[in-house]
Design brief:
This protein is α/β, with parallel strands linked by helices and 242 residues long. The chain contains 8 helices and 12 strands. Strand 10, helix 5 and strand 11 form a beta-alpha-beta unit. The longest helix is centred in the middle third of the chain and has 14 residues.
Length: 242
């Protein structure tokens, strides 16, 4: 079933409306017509089976036939704090794949060794929207504004586990997450060149556990994707799927 997105304020108990870019995609790209069945997601955790009832010049009205809560979503809430990259296309790739895997929040970071100083938040949010639909999710990950590493790790975010990837750690992330993760993970990934010793020290003081992805030296985007995948797969329901 083809997936489309509409914000919560356009959804009622019995129907919903699709407009804007999603309307264009629905009518001009997918060429849907009244009577066609589609699936619409709110981005807040609900998916709707719907039938196209009426298409006007700029909007499409749908009748809801079924509602699904947390469809295709992990029970693990993963927040990814990751240093922005010099190569913008690689960060685009990171956002897409982390979204497909099930991340719920992405926070681009400025660290001591970060080279770029600007973030393309609007672009990354659009990429997350497309990846959410492509992967049949119903939660739209939030891409936060650019934050300094210090601000990120000192923010009082209530989570069950706070992890920071560090090449000098001897603690495997798989073992750490496999021992019982709870329902939320805050994962921090450094830039090309890794975190400085001072940054790791500050993170430890704030309750972050340094963990390792193994002996190989991974690029930032690879480490972020692998870290998110391991966290999501700590949900037993997803382990059964693989």
């Amino acid at each position: 079933m083809d997936y489309f997105y509409t914000p919560p304020h356009l959804i009622t108990a019995s129907g919903l409306t699709i407009e804007g870019d999603e309307f264009v995609h629905l009518t001009h790209v997918m060429r849907k017509k009244p009577g066609d069945a589609i699936r619409v997601v709110s981005g807040t955790g609900t998916a709707y089976d719907a039938t196209l009832a009426e298409i006007s010049k700029r909007t499409a009205r749908c009748e809801i036939t079924a509602t699904h809560h947390r469809l295709n979503e992990s029970a693990i809430d993963v927040t990814l704090g990751v240093a922005i990259l010099k190569n913008a296309s690689k960060f685009d790739f990171l956002v897409e794949k982390a979204t497909e895997l099930g991340v719920t929040t992405i926070v681009p970071l400025l660290t001591e060794r970060t080279i770029p100083r600007h973030a393309k938040i609007d672009r990354w949010q659009k990429l997350a929207l497309a990846a959410m639909k492509q992967s049949c999710r119903c939660v739209l990950p939030t891409v936060r504004t650019l934050k300094s590493f210090t601000d990120f790790i000192t923010s009082d975010v209530p989570v069950d586990r706070k992890l920071i990837l560090h090449e000098k750690s001897s603690q495997p992330v798989v073992t750490t997450l496999g021992s019982g993760v709870g329902t939320s993970v805050l994962l921090c990934v450094g830039p090309e060149g890794g975190f400085s010793d001072q940054e790791i020290g500050v993170a430890r003081e704030r309750g972050f556990l340094p963990v390792s992805l193994g002996q190989s030296r991974l690029r930032t985007e690879t480490a972020a994707i692998v870290g998110v995948a391991v966290a999501i797969l700590s949900d037993p329901r997803h382990q059964a799927d693989f």
